[in-house]
Amino acid sequence: MQEKLLSNQQKLNDIQYNYKKIEENIAKAAELSGRKREDIIFLSATKTVEPQYINYAISLGLKYIGENKVQELLSKYEQYDLANTSLQFIGHLQSNKVRQIVDKVDMIQSVDSLKLAQEISKQSKKYNKTTDILLEVNIGKEESKSGVFPEKLQELCCQVSELENVKIKGLMTIPPICNTKAEISSYFSSMYNLFVDIRGKNVHNVSMECLSMGMSSDYEEAIKCGANMVRIGSSLFGARVYK
Ligand SMILES: *Cc1c(COP(=O)(O)O)cnc(C)c1O
């Protein structure tokens, strides 16, 4: 018992230490890219993390959390302290599960098909709401990953922009695993170029505000390349334990 209490306190201490460190790193990277700390959104990817630890991070100032499985989000939903915190969906989403979460999330970051966007629009309409979405881009064109290929992005963007109850707010990506900072930065820069390109076209009902890229191992590079939202899991909560 004593041991368990101590290890729980240790875990909270670690989260507090990590949170401060990440905040400092984000501020530094923002400055290096000519921006300010407040220009960057720090979202924590909370898969496998128990609500008590998520809520502790929220008490430290965390304002955005993201889950990537529908079942897990639903099982934790009642326990999140969401008064000042935005809950987003960041994982692969099947159309038939949209109705289970559409009333619970502020943004769905992982939209990569017209069919999925149509279902989000249809279900949002039932709640009289417009759901903010990001289009997920498969920037490395990997077979194993979801996301629209870069050359199909413009077309998808135009099609989705016609839907009534969704609003495109930007782009999201998970780049391939890279061995060097130069390699990962080239993917991030390609994403930034796509982002700027679409923003410049001023498509009706599309507001290119959010470029979501960068995780624990590469968020500083992502910010330097133009990301304004990073999604950080293990650097905040420690290595994931899958049960
Ligand atoms: C888990 C996850 C992250 C964070 O991963 P870490 O490497 O632990 O920071 C970011 N984005 C998505 C979509 C995730 O599923």
The portion of residues forming beta strands comes to 15-25%
Bound ligand species? pyridoxal-5'-phosphate
Find the CATH topology: TIM Barrel
Question: Quick one: overall form?
Answer: globular
Task: Give a quick account of the main beta sheet: strands, pairing sense, barrel closure.
Answer: 8 strands, parallel
Q: Give the strand order, joined by hyphens, for the main sheet.
A: 7-6-5-4-3-2-1-8
How many beta strands in the DSSP annotation?
A: 8
Rg from alpha-carbon coordinates: 18 Å
List its traits.
alpha/beta; TIM Barrel; 243 residues; single chain; eight-stranded parallel β-sheet; 9 helices; binds pyridoxal-5'-phosphate
Description:
The two termini are 22 Å apart. The protein has helices at 2-32, 51-60, 70-76, 98-101, 114-126, 150-161, 181-201, 219-224, 234-237; strands at 41-45, 64-67, 86-89, 107-111, 131-137, 166-173, 206-212, 229-232. The longest helix has 31 residues, at 2-32. The chain has a single domain (2-236), classed as Alanine racemase (TIM Barrel), CATH 3.20.20.10. With 243 residues, it is an alpha/beta fold. It is built from nine helices and eight strands. β1, α2 (51-60) and β2 (64-67) form a beta-alpha-beta unit. The structure holds pyridoxal-5'-phosphate.
